[in-house]
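Final report, Chapter 2: Outcomes

The project's central promise was a pipeline that accepts a single protein chain and returns its three-dimensional structure in a standardized token representation, suitable for archiving and comparison. That pipeline is now operational. To close this chapter, we reproduce one record exactly as it appears in the project archive, with the input sequence first and the structure output second.
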Amino acid sequence: MPALTSVKYSNNKLKKILTISGIAAGAVAVIVTGVILVQRSGILGKKKDTDRKDFKMTSEMSQVTLDSDIHTGYMFSRTAKVLMEDRGTDPWVLSWYIIPGTTRSVPQMQSRYVDSMDQVLLLESYVVDGKRSQAETLMKAIEQDLVMDNGLLRSYIVKEDPNESEEVKAERESYEDPVKLLQEEAPVSMTSSYRYLRALMNYYDKWGDSALLDRIEALTSKLYASEFQTAYKAADQMARPTPVPVTEKSMVTPIPEEETEPTGVVSLEGIELSSLDLEALRRATVLFPEQKDKFDELVKIVKGGKISDTLPLYAWMYMQNGEYAYYTGSEMNVELVPSLYVMVYLAEIGELDSSGYAWVAEKIYNDGFLNTSYNIMSGEASSEEEASEAYPLVLYLSIIKEDDALFEATYSAMMRHYATLDSSQALYTFFRDVENSRVAVFARDNLLMKLILR
């Protein structure tokens, strides 16, 4: 009996030891996992402050959106469904999709291009929503397929629709960006590259570590060291950039008849003003103060690109000879959207010229409509096409300026293009009216609105 009692006692003791060991092992696993997560978050490291500014709607602006038909959460999910999930392009979002008509003769169409700027805006959206898994997946895809050997982002990649017929292809090309159709391979996109710097810093603020900070530093250095090459789209045979002071007599130098050449893409070296995400660069100088002088010089260049008091928009490019190219065609027309990007980036750092803001506000209040281009001499609209991408940018300007009246007026103009028909594929998204009474959903419009209405 004593022997049996001894054995029983030993088994109980062993059970206790095993139980304690199991609890200890579990505790160690939890601690290790916690340490890894904390290290990844940067809490234990010397995480740097990027000095991010966060411009949000006022209470009055929020009330305007609440009183409208918009469903902001559905807008983003529907955009992803229409331009990614239904297209089978995950993790990429396509540039646009045209919904089918009511008859078979009006088929659906989708862009063949994955625009890098759209992907960067999508990445920003994931970060805002705290969707770390999707953000990491997209970042890896960008690094693999969009980052070029020079460390900058290519303008686009191609995703063909395997079911597209020759008839649909021919029609689709009429909706694509003409400059992409002329390019044999995608050039560097300085616009996307600068904006990517912003997206990476936003990710770093929330989840980043020292490895990501090293990538941010490398990209900052490459942006400043780049030759700012960009692609110039010839609008017609007479088109040439105009790196000359704006006067009535020196707008365009006609090409002699014997020197005319077909429309094509010309490679130029210069700084495309609308590409310069000055707020991203300002934050980068907080991280890397040695770049401060270069940043200050770029701010001067951008501010010096204002065209005139009659048309307080901004030049297209700053050439390496120290002059500005104000427009690209031969019709003396300035595109509005690039100038609005310039205004946004200047406003974010508190350097926007008041005349440009007043000019845009006047167009909204008086016309309720923004055109794609304006004449450089008269300041009047030179196109009947509506600049859909312009409205989110003006909304953001009004938020930065805390201008409730301009926000409400611009929001009203934007909501003309918000789909509320239950049977429509575009439901809960912003759409554009395109040729032949077609309806298209563009990634750019919806992603910009997503980042604004939060």
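Archive annotation: The longest helix spans residues 2-41.
This record, like all others produced under the grant, will remain available to the consortium after the project formally closes.
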